[in-house]
Amino acid sequence: MCLCPHACPGVKTDKPPSGIDSAPDSDAVDAPDTWDSVDFVATDPDVHTPALLDREQWMGRASDDGKFPFAPWGGADPDDADPEDSPRWEWGRTENYVDGVTVVLAEDDPRLDGRVFL
Question: How many domains does the chain have?
Answer without folding.
Answer: 2
